[in-house]
Specification:
- The protein has a domain of 130 residues: 2-Layer Sandwich (PX Domain), CATH 3.30.1520.
- Strand 3 and strand 4 form a beta hairpin.
- By secondary structure, the protein is mainly alpha-helical.
- The protein starts with a helix and ends with a helix.
- The strands form two sheets. A three-stranded antiparallel sheet has the order 3-4-5. Strands 1-2 form a two-stranded antiparallel ribbon.
- 64% of the residues lie in helices and 7% in strands.
- It has 17 helices and five strands.
Length: 558
Amino acid sequence: MEPTKADTDPLSSLAFASSLEDELEEEVPLQGETQHARTSQGQAASSHQQDDYFGLPPHRSAQHEEPSRDHAVASYGQLLSGGSTWNSGFGRSQVEPHEPMGSQHVPTDPVQREENGMLPGVMGKYMSYSVRTKTNRPNFRQQDFAVRRRFRDFVALHDLLKSTHRGFFIPPRPEKNTMEGQRAQPEFIELRRMALQRYLHQLAAHPVIGLSEVFRAFLEADEPLLSSLQWTQLTPVQHTFMEGMARLPRQLLGSESAIPNPSDAARSTRHTGDLLRRFKELRLDVRQEYQEQPALTQAEIDLRNERMLVEELQEKLANASRKAEKLVSSMEDLGNVFGDLGLSLIQTGLYEAATADQVGQYSDTGAAAKIIAADCKRVGQAAVNGRRLATTGAQAAAKAVPNATPPATIQTSMALSPLHDQLGIVPAVLKALKEREVALLTVHSLQRDMVMKQRARQSLVDDGQKVFGGDKGKERKVQGLQNDMATLEQSTSAAEQEYDKVMDRNHQELVRWKAGRAEAFTTMLDNIAKVEVGYHERMHKLWEIAASGFDDRRKQAG
């Protein structure tokens, strides 16, 4: 049987190319780098990582695990949202996780459960996670315990923190998935678990929220959380929109007081259900925006200027994040192109070697083909190894080679993670600053009501004095206004205290956030420089070895 073209021509064999790529993707030590040295380097990095586990700034990744199949994902957004951990194989950069001092919270063991649906006989499904806590903080009853929580519980935690911790920069929670069909997918479940873990670690790292009763109750309360006594005792009464609609006609007709009590005055209108108060504050906000500029203290003016600066920073961070994503994508594309070029050169070299065997390697044509084959193989292998250094390499990641060199795309993504982290926290910063302005709007609204009540009372008193013997009807109205003014005075005082408290929190949080951002960006820029230096040093070594073959042949020819 005569050999076919596919048997004799290496360029026509796609199966050969695929198997060749698998072989060349294996982790092979470079020249001058022994396997012992590489293993020692990995062990030293792991030791250093454990020593510094609790001493890192809060912007670092929250996950600590060995390299897995997740590292084969080259998407910048997925890499950053997952918070994967990598030791630098370039020997210069350490992108390590952060754990809050003395506290560790890890969602594990996702289990799908069923519950009664909205319709009779229809069962709904949800995912439950085991949240395990290891801590040495004295405010916890135990040091090692676990409870099961579903995503709805995390939403309740975030909502309660927003209600009870006005003015703090509360880390954003993971978004709810709108695609019903994706919830049972293993990839989605793992990404959700990692996002929830990152969220818990950010809360635990906060100096106030991490020690709050709300956070402790979430971690300790028996399931189901929303019906736990420990949780319900911390949850303020929430009035619904329909309750507000039912109250509105009575407030307008005067059969029910329209003056908020002191406890409601210290809360945002979003949590009170008082639609009349909400309409009043909205009207006052529009009037202050376009007609009457309120008299503001210098501290309030400074904080409003800070909010405008944060909005400008948000635009800069968004642009930088897009550029970072483009950089990682370009590095991935460049690495893949290098790999394709390397395979093509190796296949060309095999073709030239086959040609030399056919015509005779001692003939002029055969000798030239043999030289071309050797050069193509050497340069092609350098290009393929360059791809391994640069890109995620699905084949290499799947093989999970021990102490494998992390590709430059992963290292760059992790080094740039503070951009993503800071961009993610900016909306929370703006909401906290806006919450202070809402609290001040409540104070202004109550003060305006007080002025109107005082004018109405004075008008009734003046009219009553014109009647001989007094006007009993007007006296009753004056007494009612005095009662309203007494309640207003208490509510205004409560609103002012709440505003002062939120302002103090804004000041403290801005100082903390700016210091953390400065440290995060310094570390980020340092890591980027080290990753780039290490990557290009190894690429230089690869191509230097490839070029040495040409120098050796020139010396032999000379």
